[in-house]
UniProtKB/TrEMBL annotation:
Histidine kinase domain segment(s): 354-566
Organism taxonomic ancestry: Bacteria, Pseudomonadati, Pseudomonadota, Alphaproteobacteria, Rhodospirillales
Gene3D superfamilies listed in its UniProt record: Histidine kinase-like ATPase, C-terminal domain (3.30.565.10), PAS domain (3.30.450.20)
Protein name listed in UniProt: histidine kinase
Entry EC number(s): 2.7.13.3
């Protein structure tokens, strides 16, 4: 807001610093919100996968026990019918009663069936005498007639029973003559509705689809829920590829569905749990909504604080311009007395002190709010970032604390400021459990006010960077208590950070050095994504200063060189 004949306020650095801090705060909130959202989404999907895997293990064990029990009944029927002529079997009420009594103990089985070599049904627990039925064209009968060795059990495709007219599937074995020739087939029909009912009792979240399939052709035996019990929907191509994969059991997913599958013990069947991702993500969105609202509230609070601080800085700049204009008017006026001029100058000084005092108070309020916000959040990383932001604001506030104490507001004793800053950082680090010690070697130097904020922030970032990264945490060795305390004290005495300030010819030199772990190989501070290093880089450019970084074996040294003529 320049006025004719009055020099303008050329360095509105405080507004720029507040703007940078606000922008970094908004960026940090956005990054945290995105990271938390992505991680919580992945946890929700992973949790659904784990629940599907747990369910499929239970279902596979259940199916294995069911098939084992059914196979025992098949073997019992084979033993009871062995050596008997088929006509005798067909007319044996005693055999029918035995088989029916055994079948009644297994509620998941519909009936026992005995077919002769031609496929003709000779005995069934469904009715006595046996109704007519021919199984010579059934897949299970053709399988056993074709197999010439062994009598391993076989699980058939899903069929519609010709006697019961109900959907079912068979667990069967081959009957052989003493010489090994084909004698017929014994089988039991498994009730798919019993399995479907068991699947319903599991009460799995997100309403998954539970499927039992044959291993040979992946045809569906049981599906729950199912729209058409007579013709259950076949497996999707994605599910088929998962079951044919070499690793066997496992879980796979794409953008729309999670599929967990498991082989049923030694039986040629698989259990599949298919879960749509849509309900999982809907639940995740409901759970994440409060955190998104919290992030929005934090962004609004940061915006309000930034606007408040920005307006305070603008007000201070306007007041300073007004004061300069008044001083020039009073100086130009030859009609005013020396006493009036002295009074005006005193008034200006008083107002300037009041302005800097208010700015200091406002920045301390911002720093305190950031600290309180950091204590209120549960995320350790977010807590640390808010604490660092509070320290940066406090570093600016300390500049203004000096401004209302010194006589000449154009310059401040930067060595006093640096000493107070380092001692405060040392106390803060030690209160958090660190073993650091700051060694100060500072010469009395005054710095223009419009350079003090940048230099103060740079000093704050360099010291905090050394505190956080120079030394690994102290670990006590497994020795006696007294020896452990001595070892820890010795280690702490070595964890020093040297801070220096001196004039070197025409240069002001600020250095921070440590004897810690040093910088990683290939480290380039210009490419660092750290907020602290980015602030140091930006503020150094604003001051036309040079920053040098070097490994000192051990440790590292950061040196800022600022031409003194640039501060004139």
């Amino acid at each position: 807001m320049p006025t004719d004949g009055i020099p303008s306020f050329h360095n509105p650095r405080l507004e720029a610093a507040i703007g940078w801090l606000a922008a970094c705060g908004f960026l940090f909130l956005a990054v945290v919100t995105v990271v938390v959202g992505v991680q919580s989404r992945e946890r929700a999907v992973t949790g659904a996968q784990e629940r599907a895997q747990a369910a499929v293990r239970v279902l596979a064990e259940h199916a294995a026990r069911l098939f084992d029990a059914a196979d025992l009944l098949v073997e019992y029927a084979a033993q009871e019918s062995a050596g008997r002529p088929w006509d005798e079997i067909a007319g044996s009420r005693e055999l029918w009663d035995k088989l029916n009594a055994q079948r009644a103990r297994l509620p998941f089985l519909d009936a026992v069936w005995l077919n002769d070599p031609s496929g003709l049904l000779r005995l069934t627990t469904v009715a006595f005498p046996t109704p007519y039925s021919d199984a010579s064209d059934r897949e299970a009968f053709l399988f056993h007639r074709k197999v010439t060795e062994g009598d391993r059990p076989h699980i058939s495709q899903r069929i519609i029973g010709r006697v019961t007219n109900q959907p079912t599937f068979l667990l069967s074995r081959r009957l052989s003559e003493p010489g090994g020739s084909f004698r017929g087939m014994v089988s039991v029909t498994v009730d798919p509705s019993y399995l479907a009912g068991f699947y319903k009792t599991l009460d799995l979240p997100h309403e998954p689809v539970t499927i039992l399939v044959r291993a040979d052709d992946l045809s569906v035996l049981v599906r729950e829920p199912v729209a058409d019990p007579a013709n259950p929907t076949p497996l999707s191509e994605f599910a088929r590829q998962a079951l044919r994969a070499p690793q066997g059991d496992g879980v796979v997913r794409d953008d729309a569905v999670i599929i967990a599958h498991r082989r049923v013990d030694s039986w040629p069947a698989h259990v599949v749990v298919q879960l749509d991702l849509a309900p999982v993500l809907a639940t995740w969105r409901r759970l994440i909504a409060p955190y998104a609202g919290l992030a929005a509230a934090a962004a609004l609070a940061l915006m309000a604080l930034s606007l408040f601080a920005f307006r305070q800085a603008q007000s201070a700049r306007v007041v300073q311009l007004e004061l300069e204009r008044r001083v020039l008017e009073r100086t130009a006026s030859l009609e005013r007395t020396i006493g009036e001029r002295d009074a005006a100058l005193a008034q200006k000084d008083l107002l300037m002190r009041e302005v800097n005092h208010r700015i200091k108070n406002s920045l301390q309020v911002v720093s305190s709010l950031l600290g309180l916000q950091g204590q209120a959040v549960g995320d350790a990383r977010l807590h640390g970032h808010l604490q660092e932001a509070g320290r940066r604001v406090q570093a600016i506030a300390d500049i203004h604390r000096l401004l209302y104490r010194v006589d000449d507001v154009q310059f401040i004793p930067f060595h006093d400021y640096l000493t107070d800053l380092c001692r405060e950082l040392e106390r803060s680090a030690q209160s958090e459990g660190g073993g650091w010690r700051l060694d100060l070697a500072v010469e009395p130097l005054e710095v223009p006010t419009d350079h003090a904020v940048q230099l103060g922030l740079i000093a704050n970032e360099l010291v905090m960077n050394a505190i956080k990264h120079a030394y690994r945490p102290l670990v006590a060795t497994p020795a006696a208590a007294g020896g452990a305390r001595v070892a820890t004290a010795e280690a702490a005495s070595r964890n020093t950070i040297a801070v220096g300030l001196h004039a070197d010819g025409g240069m002001l030199v600020l250095s921070v050095a440590d004897r810690g772990v040093g910088l990683p190989s290939g480290f380039d501070w210009r490419q660092s994504r750290s907020l602290g290093m980015r602030l140091i880089h930006t503020l150094s450019d604003q001051l036309d200063a040079t920053l040098s970084v070097e490994n000192t074996a051990p440790g590292a040294r950061f040196t800022i060189r600022l031409p003194r003529e640039a501060m004139a």
